[in-house]
Amino acid sequence: MTDRRYDLDWLRIIAFGLLILYHCGMFYVTWEWHVKSDRASETIEPLMMLTSPWRLTLLMLIAGAATRFLADKLSVWKFTASRMGRLWPPLLLAVFVIVPPQSYYEIVDAIRMLPPEQVAQYPLALDNFYIKYVTASGNWCDSDGCLTTPTYNHMWFVAYLILYTLALIPLLPLLRRIPKAAAVLLAGPFLILTPWIVMATLRVTLQPIFGESHDFREDWYLHALYFSVFVFGFSIAKFEPFFERCVKWRWPALAIAVASWATLIIYFNLHPEGVTPPDWLRAIMRSVRELDAWCAIVAAIGFAHKHLRNADGPARRLLTQAIFPFYLVHQTIIVVAGYHLNALALPLWIEAPLLIGATALGCWLFFDLGRRIPWLRVWIGLPSNAGPTRATNDGVKAGEAKQPSGG
Fold first, then answer.
1. Res 386: pLDDT
2. Which residues of the chain fall short of a pLDDT of 70?
3. Which burial class, exposed, middle or buried, applies to 214 when counting CB atoms under 10 A from its CB (0-12, 13-18, 19+)?
C-alpha cells in the first residue's frame, strides 16, 4: 500500500497553481498590490473572488496534515530540525534575493504615478537601493505609509508556518488524541456547521479590529484563523471519517459555496467603494464569506479524495517537487514582467497571456536550474539529495500510517 496521500498532493499543487494565477490577476484589478497595470479595472474581480476566501486556508490545512505525517515518524528534535531546515533557507533567500526586485519596482511604479512636479523630489530614491533595502534606511514613504524593508512579501506564508510549527511542538501529545474525542463535532451537518461557526466568529470579532496585514507582529486575526486551521489539519490528518464525510458532502458543499460567492458578488455590487453598509449587514456578509470558504474547502477535499487519491504518475511526482519553488519565485516574475509589459502598451488579449506565460516559464527555469545544483537545492525548498522521483516533505507523505490520511 502506498504511503503517500496523492489526493492532498494534488490539492496542494492545484491550490498553489491557483495562487500563482491569482497574483497574475492582482496586476489587473483595482485592489492594492505592488505594481498595477494602467488598465486595471473591476472586470475580473468576481472571478478572483471565486478562490480568494478559501485558497490559503486550504493550504494551511494541508500544511498541518503534512506536518502530522512527518512528526509521527521523527523524534521531537529531529522533527524540529527537519522543518526548520526546510523552511528557513527559502525564507532567507526570498527576503534577501528574491523579494528585493518586488520592492524596487513597487517604488519605481509609485514614482511613475506621481505628478511630474513631484517626481523631481525623488531623484535619489533608488540610489544604492539594495543597501537601503537590507539596512531599512530607504525612507520610502507616501501618504499611505512607508515601505518596510527587508521584507518577505508573499513569503509570509512560510514565515507563519515556521511560527505555527514551533507553537505546535508542545501540543503534539494532546493533538494526536483530538480526532476521536471531537468526532461528534464533525458528524453529519456539523462537518459544515462547526468549522464555519469558528471561522465566522473569528472574522466577525477579530478581523474588524486587526485586519489582515501579514505582519507577524500584529496579524492577530489571521494568526487565530490560520493556526486553528493548521492545528485542525494536523489533528484530522489520519482521521479517515473526516475525508469520507467530505466525499459525502462534496456536492452540497459546492452548491453552498457557489451560492455564498454569488451573494458576496451581489453585496459588493450594491455597496461599491464609498458606500458603507450598516454594521449588522457587514457582520452577516463576513459570516457568508466564511461559509463560502469552508464549504469550498470541504468540496475540494471531497472531490480530491474521491477522484485523485490513487492518481499517481510522473506529473504528480514532478509537480510535487516543483510547486514550492514556483511559489517562491513567481511573484517577483509577475511584478517585473508586469511592469515592463505595461510599458509596451500591448492589447490586453496579448499582454495578459504573455504575463502568464512569462511567469510559467520563469518558474520552470528557476526550479529546473535549482534542482540541478546540489548546494542550491535546499535554498529553493528541495531535499539536498536529488532523486528522479523523490518528493519533498512539503508534499503529503503518510510515512508508516496504513490508512489514508489528510503547503
1. 63
2. 1-3, 115-125, 179-182, 184, 386-407
3. middle
Take residue 130 and report the three cell numbers written for it: 539594495
d(CA 342, CA 21): 18
Rg (CA), the chain: 22
β-bridge mates for residue 146, sequence order: 141
SS3 call for 127: coil
Q: How far apart are the first and last CA of the chain?
A: 24
At which residue does the C-alpha cell 511542538 appear?
169
CA distance 29 to 93: 29
The C-alpha atoms of residue 50 and residue 47 are separated, in whole angstroms, by 5
Place of cell 485558497: 55
> Can you read off the three cell numbers belonging to residue 170?
508542545
CA atoms within 13 A on the CB side of 303: 13
3-state secondary structure of 145: strand
188: left (phi over 0), alpha (psi -120 to 50) or beta: left
How far apart (Å, rounded) are the C-alpha atoms in residues 261 and 47?
10
3-state secondary structure of 397: strand
Residues in the chain: 407
Q: 86, 379 in Cβ contact below 8 A?
A: no
Identify the pLDDT of residue 141: 83
Identify the residue whose cell numbers are 495578459. Answer: 352
Side-chain half-sphere of 201: how many Cα atoms within 13 Å?
8
Helix (H) or strand (E) holding 142: strand 141-142
Residue 256 CA to residue 266 CA, distance in Å, equals 15
Residues 51 and 327: their CA atoms lie apart, in Å, by: 17
Closest CA to 41 of 348, 317, 310: 348
Q: What is the CB neighbour count within 10 angstroms for residue 363?
A: 21
Q: What is the pLDDT of residue 275?
A: 86
- Taking the C-alpha atoms of residue 389 and residue 158, their distance in angstroms, rounded to an integer, is 24
Chain-centroid distance of CA 357 in Å reads: 21
What does residue 170 show for φ and ψ, rounded to 5 degrees? -65, -15
Amino acid 261 reads W
